[in-house]
Amino acid sequence: MSAPVIHADKLVKVYQMGEQQVCALCGVSLRIERGEVVSIMGPSGSGKSTLMNILGCLDLPTSGDYTLDGEAVSELKDDQLADIRNRKVGFVFQSFNLLSRTTALANVELPLRYAGMKAGRKEQARAALDSVGLSDRMTHRPTELSGGQQQRVAIARALVNNPAIIMADEPTGNLDSKVGKEIIALLLELNRKKGTTLIIITHDPNVAAQTQRIIHLRDGLVEEV
């Protein structure tokens, strides 16, 4: 069996809240295969956001081991964490997180700028926007785009570096049901075409039902189903 793109072993994350310690993750172990489409579900306070932050290299666990695409992450320094995050992870958020004063093309170029890429940057960003059906909206600013179009720009930005994984955190949360279905269909189609591993954090059972596997979290642990 080939190595998984994500391998987490006994992840623990403890937060200090005044004099009290709160265990947000209490020993989570999981593996996600390359090209797999997985959803993560659980009630508020179950540890979903904490797990997403660790898997997306936004935070480090208190203890436990995490390997992303063959690279050990658990004990990296902040600058090393930022580097692996930029190279290996594409993020899609509920609130789009686009820069309002710049064009769709400039928003998609940002990860390439951070990576220090100079030659071919615009061409790569244009190709990413074309792949999400926005070749005719490249010069528009976010305020000139619908919610669904803004989320497509965010997906193009997540894809532009050809990351090992895309993490979509409630990607349909700010969209009506029709547009939300279109966005999920787009993410699944991109997974089929590009083979990018897709992890969707969602409260919506209809969204989760379209993924290959559902990981349920409760009280900081993976819940057996």
Structural description of this entry:
The chain has seven helices and ten strands. The chain has 225 residues and is an alpha/beta fold. The protein has one domain (6-223): P-loop containing nucleotide triphosphate hydrolases (Rossmann fold), CATH 3.40.50.300. A hairpin with a 2-residue loop joins strand 4 and strand 5. The protein starts with 5 loop residues before the first strand and ends with a strand. 37% of the residues are buried.
Itemize the secondary structure elements and their pairings.
Layout: E1 6-17, E2 20-32, E3 37-41, H1 48-55, E4 63-68, E5 71-72, H2 78-88, E6 89-93, H3 104-114, H4 121-131, H5 147-159, E7 165-169, H6 177-194, E8 197-201, H7 205-208, E9 213-218, E10 221-223
Parallel strand pairs: 3-8, 3-9, 6-7, 7-8
Antiparallel strand pairs: 1-2, 1-4, 4-5, 9-10
Helix pairs in contact: 3-4, 3-5, 4-5, 5-6
